[in-house]
Design a protein that fits this description.
Elements lengths: L7 E5 L7 H13 L7 E5 L5 H8 L4 E4 L16 H6 L4 E4 L2 H6 L4 H14 L2 E6 L3 H5 L3 H16 L7 E4 L13 H16 L3 H6 L1 E5 L4 H8 L6 E4 L6 H14 L1
Parallel strand pairs: 1-2, 1-8, 2-3, 3-4, 4-5, 5-6, 6-7, 7-8
Helix pairs in contact: 1-2, 5-7, 7-8, 10-11
The structure holds phosphoenolpyruvate.
The site of phosphoenolpyruvate has 13 residues, from strand 8.
Length: 254
């Protein structure tokens, strides 16, 4: 089976691999990416490494930030704007990760503002949405996912195919509890259908990634689902073999 959208595999290193280990890993991943690869491979190192990783991967691997500030400049100590991330070599930025929502009080409104700022500057956002375990058990998965999606969909609609959406059920992140292929596909299909209500082109071109305990041995089953266009990977992105195992699964379905 070949996918209607080019698969995208993104590794979110979070607060890890921030020294020479990160540079070495980025170099090793770039060495495994082919010039005519059928998959887009992206790494999101800590901000302090963005510039050096961008140089090391030399365009073979996309570089993503893990966060961005919504303003272009000003008195916001400790923050980085979309323009600054571009200058550091980023092409992508992860926005609204559940850890940002949980530990840094990021709201749907803020996610919208950050997504707009990223797109305006020319960065490609990977916007994360997903329900908690309590919300799933209360039967509110689609209600929550639709609310989070509706918050920013108006800002991605004029640039179809530029932003990616990551569906990451919070209960599956870093827990080893992966959603079943069917659970993931059901939500991905609902997201795509919701996008179709905005524009057919947006729905057709938007890559919807799955995230939550993706590993080399469960990636193929997930990526084989019709509406799963890639993966946002945390733990398994920290080592070459486990990350490339997922990239190889994506190559099989591309
Ligand atoms: C993530 O943090 O985006 C993630 C999906 O983590 P993990 O793969 O470790 O569950």
């Amino acid at each position: 089976m070949s996918k209607p959208r080019r698969p995208l595999i993104a590794g979110n290193w979070k607060l890890n691999n921030g020294g020479q280990d990160g540079i070495d890993l980025a170099r090793a991943i770039a060495a495994e990416v082919r010039g005519n690869d059928s998959v887009d491979v992206v790494v999101a190192p800590p901000a302090s490494l963005l510039h050096r990783v961008s140089e090391v991967v030399a365009g073979k691997v996309g570089v993503s930030a893990q966060n961005v500030h919504q303003e272009a400049s000003g008195a916001f100590t400790g923050e980085l704007s979309a323009g600054m991330l571009l200058f550091a070599g980023c092409k992508w930025v992860i926005i609204g990760h559940s850890e940002r929502r949980q530990f840094f009080a990021e709201t749907d409104e803020l996610v919208k503002a950050k997504t707009a700022a990223a797109l305006k500057a020319g960065l490609q956002p990977i916007v994360c949405i997903g329900e908690t375990l309590a919300e799933r058990e209360a039967g509110k998965t689609l209600e929550v996912v639709n609310r989070q999606l509706d918050a920013f969909s108006s800002v991605i609609k004029d640039k179809p195919g530029v932003a990616a959406i990551a569906y990451e059920p919070v209960w599956a992140i870093g827990t080893g509890k992966v959603a079943t292929n069917e659970q993931a596909q059901e939500v991905h299909a609902a997201i795509r259908q919701r996008l179709a209500g905005i524009s057919a082109e947006l729905s057709r071109t938007t890559r919807i990634l799955y995230g939550g305990s993706v590993k080399a041995d469960n990636a193929l089953g997930l990526l084989n689902q019709e509406d799963i266009d890639g993966a946002l990977v945390g733990g398994a992105s920290l080592k070459l073999d486990s990350f490339m195992g997922i990239v190889n699964a994506a190559r099989q379905v591309a």
